[in-house]
């Protein structure tokens, strides 16, 4: 018998020694690899059958849910089960029970689709134990299946895509050895990828075959709908529920806040998983300073809790290598696995980790799915993610029950700024930006996290009750304001709802100053555009204030009429008034402009118009001038009513929930001061003041209906 000695890089070898040694052993490793792969397959195939497997209650419940759904005619179904729940055990027994219930059991044929080698070998191992009488074959890389002989085909999505033409599609219900009677998809959240759709559309064009998908996370970051393949999730048991039921071990969660970990500038992958761009993420995380924090944190936790089997999720291969080098140089027994690690070397490293020969195993994206290592007692999350499913997969690696652990320590390296990063507290329902999480969490159990959540929700409830009381007071203030304010003055308040008005004092962009110095001013300002206000100083002059939203700057301008105003009976129908503008002042401080307005009014009250030798400002400008409370003239009312009804009937404007009678009722009560303001505003902008006035009339109407 050929005896081979395999020199394994088990972490005891130093970084530079590894590189010097590995090249010398390369040919030997390649020779050993072929032998090891064959022996590994042989070991799996020759696994001893296990009879009378006792299923957990929830596992049988999941199987029953699938059988009931299929018997009721729903064939495209999904099972959502947390990592560690035994999905492979479930679908192995599900195949057995469906086969037993099938009327053509002698022809029964099942396909299991996986996307990773580890998942295929894991499924093969369980099926050989559960169904030893069946011919189970792999369609995986160098392993080529014979469709005519196989009862169950376990296929990687990559290999089956290349060899699809040797399989027959199911186009009728006639029993045949050539057709599949059942398709199982492991880690089915991947199943809407084009490669899966190609296979399913080919093998099951008429949707005759039951398709059952299994996954711990039925959600995708790329927003593709899983309904393409599944009509219903027939069973769900999540991670938190599995922990509560003691099917998975509890966690102790520690958050390590790193100020240097600034993730705001990192781009998001737009076309794939909507997660952080890995290359940019690595540049920020893979630094000597942050890696030292990771090392020191591990040292402290390892000593405090006697950690023996730590799995580290790094960002990329460079990060893996840097962390491995750092741990090696500090006398820790570590090793690593990446996508470039040869499969047989990977198996050997994992086996050493399971046997405790390696204390720290570092990876990037390898152990998120299809890995069963129950002895993991701690996980270091050195790879922030926006993906809930990825986080669940990473945490799930350490939650399997094991005699040597009561908890799995989850250590999360984060930054307190919320940029969409998913964390364990968020899975429990706690937002990371709450005051409860303003400091680091240290060894917090799941129940303690739930207590934090309950306390947080209680505080939110108390705040909600207080806010309700405040809102009641604000509603009273709003109602009083509406009741005591005529409709046109309401047009100065540019809000979509009454609630927005009550929140005005909390808003930014100087809206509270605008409320104080324009809306509540004693001068009759009008609003003629979204960010523009006007004040008439008489027939020949007026002022305007404009606000630039980008610069937050206000500008005060004075306008002169370039032609004499027409007499009163014609002014309402004139559309050719021309103004000459002069900028008076610019400032981000509205108060400075208001002070300048007061100076202008005072000066103009002493100046004569050069055209008609009369004082420019001849009468009281304030809202409280006696003439403003007289009834509007018939001509004023007629003009304004014409404008309101014209805009109201326009199909281009929104539904104001008003009637023509509502408009006439408003016109009937119109005073001369408001009429002058409306006419002045429409001379500056013909539409905006009218639409604002219609909205204000509608506000007044709604207020009256509430009383």
From TrEMBL:
The keyword RNA-binding does not apply. The keyword Transmembrane applies. Keywords: ATP-binding, Helicase, Hydrolase, Membrane, Nucleotide-binding, Transmembrane, Transmembrane helix. GO terms for molecular function: ATP binding; double-stranded DNA helicase activity; forked DNA-dependent helicase activity; hydrolase activity; Y-form DNA binding. One of its GO terms (cellular component) is mitochondrial matrix. The chain crosses the membrane at residues 678-699. Pfam families: Helicase_C, ResIII. GO terms for biological process: mitochondrial DNA metabolic process; mitochondrial translational elongation; regulation of mitochondrial translational elongation. Residues 289-471 form the Helicase C-terminal domain. Residues 68-236 form the Helicase ATP-binding domain. PANTHER family: ATP-DEPENDENT HELICASE IRC3-RELATED, TYPE I RESTRICTION ENZYME ECOKI R PROTEIN. This is Uncharacterized protein. It comes from Henningerozyma blattae (strain ATCC 34711 / CBS 6284 / DSM 70876 / NBRC 10599 / NRRL Y-10934 / UCD 77-7). The lineage of its organism: Eukaryota, Fungi, Dikarya, Ascomycota, Saccharomycotina.
């Amino acid at each position: 018998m050929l005896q081979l000695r395999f020199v394994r890089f088990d972490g005891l070898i130093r970084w530079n020694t590894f590189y010097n040694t590995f090249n010398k052993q390369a040919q030997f490793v390649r020779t050993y690899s072929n032998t090891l792969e064959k022996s590994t397959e042989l070991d799996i195939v020759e696994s001893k059958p296990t009879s009378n497997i006792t299923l957990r209650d929830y596992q049988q419940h999941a199987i029953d849910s699938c059988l009931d759904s299929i018997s009721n005619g729903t064939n495209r179904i999904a099972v959502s089960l947390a990592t560690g729940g035994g999905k492979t055990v479930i679908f192995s027994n599900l195949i057995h029970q469906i086969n037993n219930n099938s009327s053509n059991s002698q022809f029964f044929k099942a396909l299991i689709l996986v996307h990773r080698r580890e998942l295929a070998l894991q499924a093969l191992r369980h099926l050989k134990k559960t169904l030893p009488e069946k011919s189970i074959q792999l369609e995986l890389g160098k392993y080529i299946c014979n469709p005519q002989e196989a009862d169950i085909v376990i296929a990687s999505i990559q290999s089956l895509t290349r060899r699809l033409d040797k399989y027959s599609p199911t186009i009728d219900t006639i029993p045949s050895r050539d057709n599949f009677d059942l398709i199982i998809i492991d880690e089915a959240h991947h199943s809407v990828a084009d490669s899966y759709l190609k296979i399913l559309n080919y093998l099951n064009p008429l949707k005759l075959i039951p398709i059952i998908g299994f996954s711990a996370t039925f959600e995708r970051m790329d927003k593709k709908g899983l309904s393409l393949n599944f009509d219903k999730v027939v069973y769900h048991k999540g991670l938190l529920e599995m922990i509560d039921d003691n099917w998975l071990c509890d966690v102790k969660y520690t958050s390590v806040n790193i100020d240097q970990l600034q993730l705001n500038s990192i781009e998001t992958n737009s076309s794939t998983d909507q997660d952080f761009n890995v290359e940019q993420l690595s540049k920020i995380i893979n630094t000597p300073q942050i890696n030292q924090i990771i090392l020191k944190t591990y040292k402290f936790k390892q000593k405090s809790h006697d950690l023996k089997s730590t799995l580290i999720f790094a960002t990329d291969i460079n990060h893996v290598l840097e962390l491995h080098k750092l741990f090696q140089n500090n006398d820790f027994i570590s090793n690593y696995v990446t996508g470039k690690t040869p499969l047989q070397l990977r198996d050997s490293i994992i086996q050493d980790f399971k046997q405790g020969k390696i204390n720290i195993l570092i990876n990037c994206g390898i152990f998120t799915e299809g890995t069963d290592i129950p002895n993991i007692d701690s996980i270091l999350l050195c790879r922030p993610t926006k993906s809930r499913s990825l986080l669940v997969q990473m945490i799930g690696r350490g939650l399997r029950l094991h005699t040597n652990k009561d908890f799995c320590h989850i250590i999360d390296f984060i930054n307190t700024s919320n940029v969409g990063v998913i964390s364990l507290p968020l899975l429990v329902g706690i937002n990371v930006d709450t005051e409860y999480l303003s400091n680091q969490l240290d060894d917090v159990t799941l129940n303690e996290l739930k207590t934090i959540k309950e306390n947080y929700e209680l505080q939110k409830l108390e705040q909600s009750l207080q806010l309700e009381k405040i809102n009641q007071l604000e509603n009273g203030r709003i109602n009083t304001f509406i009741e005591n304010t005529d409709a046109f003055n309401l047009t100065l308040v540019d809000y979509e709802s009454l609630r927005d008005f009550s929140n005005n004092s909390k808003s930014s962009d100087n809206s509270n100053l605008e409320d104080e110095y324009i809306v509540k001013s004693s001068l009759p300002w009008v609003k003629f555009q979204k960010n523009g206000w006007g004040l008439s100083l008489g027939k020949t002059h007026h002022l305007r204030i404009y606000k630039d939203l980008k610069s937050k700057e206000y500008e005060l301008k004075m306008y002169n009429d370039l032609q004499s105003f027409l007499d009163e009976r014609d002014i309402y129908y004139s559309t050719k008034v021309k103004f000459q503008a002069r900028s008076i002042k610019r400032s981000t401080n509205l108060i400075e402009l208001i002070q300048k307005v007061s100076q202008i009014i005072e000066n103009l009250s002493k100046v004569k118009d050069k055209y008609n030798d009369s004082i420019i400002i001849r009468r009281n400008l304030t809202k409280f001038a006696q003439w403003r409370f007289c009834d509007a003239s018939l001509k004023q009312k007629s003009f304004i009513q014409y404008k309101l009804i014209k805009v109201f009937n326009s199909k281009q404007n929104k539904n104001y929930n008003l009637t023509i009678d509502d408009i006439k009722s408003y016109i009937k009560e119109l005073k001369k001061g408001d009429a002058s303001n409306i006419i002045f505003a429409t001379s500056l902008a013909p539409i905006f003041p009218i639409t604002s006035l219609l909205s204000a009339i509608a506000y007044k109407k709604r207020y009256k209906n509430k009383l």
